[in-house]
Amino acid sequence: MASGSLRLQRNMVLPTGRHSASLIFLHGSGDCGQGLRKWIKQVLAQDLTFQHIKIIYPTAPSRPYTPLKGGLSNVWFDRFKISNDCPEHLDSIDATCHMLTELIDDEVKSGISKNRILVGGFSMGGCMAMHLAYRKHPDVAGVFALSSFLNKASAVYQALQKADGVLPELFQCHGTADELVLHSWGEETNWVLRSLGVNSQFHSFPGVYHELSKTELEKLKSWILNKLPGDMGK
Predict the structure, then answer these.
(1) Candidate list 19, 174, 178, 200, residue with the active-site label
(2) Does 210 participate in catalysis according to the annotation?
(3) How far apart are the C-alpha atoms of 76 and 96, rounded to whole Å?
(4) Is the overall model pTM greater than 0.85, yes or no?
């Protein structure tokens, strides 16, 4: 771990059997790892668990957040505003990529190869996961983004224009009634990523707001098991 860097607090769900894959699940703005885990447990009426996959729910460090007029919040990065047509706050995004890279490195050191690691998240967490995977770790197993979007001139798009080789598959979900992160922003993000060579799935959920739904989480669970099957060797 780099000296002087901040180590992320993490809440974990250990596999019930032999650990052969890992999943990093990033919360939305103002939440925490434990909060996201509790929310998922509420929606599913049980913890999200796998026989062979360790789930890591890290907590974003507290920082001044511009949409809250500079008030402190657990956010992965700062935003100038919650909109898809403003510049990204790349300094804070890149600082978090560095912290999350240390988390990925810890899994690799424990014997989990990069192609057995999934990254994803809800809302801001999904956006962060796309930056982490497509700009810094294109060799992970896949990415998921729930109720998330990328800004129109995102550094992710710029990176993908220069990318060569296989890109991680994207699993994206969005509620049609979302008033905070518009469904159209999610759709546009998906369309641009597909045009840049990303193999992706986009699932719309009629009447769902800026929230997690049981159907969505069950679909996500199936996708996770498809990307990280349990009968792998090591």
Answers:
(1) 178
(2) yes
(3) 6
(4) yes
